[in-house]
Every structure is written in C-alpha cells, then in structure tokens.
Amino acid sequence: MSTKLFVGSLPWSVDDNALQTVFQTHGEVVSAKVVTDRETGRSRGFGFVEMEDSTAANNAIKALNNSELNGRNIVVNEAKPRS
After folding, report:
1. 18/48 Cα distance (integer angstroms)
2. How many domains in the chain?
3. CA gap 15, 47 in Å, rounded
4. How far apart are CA 72 and CA 53, in angstroms?
5. CA 45 to chain centre
6. Strand 72-73 relative to strand 43-51, pairing
7. Quick one: angle between helices 54-64 and 16-24, nearest 10?
8. Residue 61 within any structural domain of the chain
9. Strand, coil or helix: what is 39?
10. Is the pLDDT of residue 9 over 90?
C-alpha cells in the first residue's frame, strides 16, 4: 500500500520533476506534486509525494526531513488525511 508524504518549505525553484528526483533515490515514487497558486501558477512552497510502500516512505522521511534542498531546509513527514 502506498504512503503519501507532505513536503514543506520547498524552494520556489522546485517543480514536480525535481521533487520526484529527490525522493526516488529512497524508493519507488508513485507521484510527486508541488502545489501551485491557481491564479499565478507559482509554487506555494509545499507538495506531496506518494511512495510505493511504507518502508521506502519511512526511509525518505529519515533521510530527507530537515535536509537542505537548493539552499532551504525542507520538512518531510507523513501526510495527514483531510478532515
């Protein structure tokens, strides 16, 4: 079963492909999406990555949480379901 991760504090320069590239070194990525503003199309500074399995997701969290990406420390944790 896949696991969805929240990725925060993303640099404005990171797009979907760059986000996927960062995470695929830790396991199979099902999807990677940087959330953008509807009006401007500019990144909102966070995104979501869906990993193939929970082991890969946990490895990615341990390796990437509070790590530097293009000069910014990113936050990575398991996404909480919408309420």
Report:
1. 12
2. 1
3. 9
4. 27
5. 10
6. unpaired
7. 100
8. yes
9. coil
10. yes
In a domain, 83, yes or no: no
Is 20 part of any domain? yes
Length of the chain: 83
Q: Which residues pair with 3 in a beta bridge?
A: 51
pLDDT at position 81: 87
Tokens found for residue 67: 């790590």
The pTM score is 0.95
DSSP secondary structure letter of residue 81: P
Range of the domain at 66: 3-78
CATH of the domain at 42: 3.30.70.330
| Cα distance between residue 13 and residue 82, in whole Å | 27
pLDDT in tens, 44-62: 999 999 999 999 999 999 9
